[in-house]
Amino acid sequence: MLISQVFMILYSILAALLGRGTKTFAIIFILIIIMSLVQSRRGKGPLGKGKTDPEKILSGRKLYEENKTRDIQMKDEKLFEDLQEQSKFTIYMSMGSFIGIGYFILLWPMVDRIYNTVLPSVGNDKLAHFIAFLVFFEGLFIINQLSMLWALKRVGRVTMVNIPQSYVITDRGIVIKGLIGKTGLEFPLPEDIEVRYDQKRGFAELIKHGSRSTTKIRFYARNPKRVYELLKKGLASSSG
Predict the structure, then answer these.
(1) pTM score, two decimals?
(2) Three state DSSP letters for the chain
């Protein structure tokens, strides 16, 4: 939330310098999208631990690799049931995102009204612009926060299941291969992580319980017990 507030202020300063208009609207809209992507890539990993360079992990001794988990997960008859509440939460959050986009596009002209209202009081054109844009962006921030709270209230405590389609485990950690890059989870794993496996359903998973949600990274495998043992060893090394 603090980082979001900092960006709201920076966006408002930039918009105040550029002035009102279509050009400013386009630049700020693109910047918000870019910074959202950058924040998601530079933020903490899915287990709450800082991300590690995947190449550092891959330089270790390879212990296990799975490249086609989809073939295994398709045989898991209970997977759909596990993903139901996550799907509902995603739909609710998407609705909030559409409302936010609508707010940004449809209420952009409100900046002029706010500007004309505060200008007589502050007596400075740039400052009046800054305040007008800040009020506008804070409205967008509030919509995003309320959307998240509403989604959580509708679903309750949500369990988010992350299913890598390809991954490698070395003696240094785990590398998850995605469509747009790789994510590294370094050993030792955080101490508050739970590790479990289901031989019948064909997976081992890491579980982290947060204040509002539970995150699971589920590794489907031809040999789920072996993956479980490696994950347990990676967790146990945190005390060694």
Answers:
(1) 0.69
(2) CHHHHHHHHHHHHHHHHHCCCHHHHHHHHHHHHHHHHHHHHHCCCCCCCCCECHHHHHCCCEEEEECCHHHHHCCCCCHHHHHHHHHHHHHHHHHHHHHHHHHHHHCCCHHHHHHHHHHHHHCCHHHHHHHHHHHHHHHHHHHHHHHHHHHHHHHCCEEEEECCCCEEEECCEEEEECCCCEEEEECCCCCCCEEEEECCCCEEEEEEECCCEEEEEEEECCCHHHHHHHHHHHHHHHHC
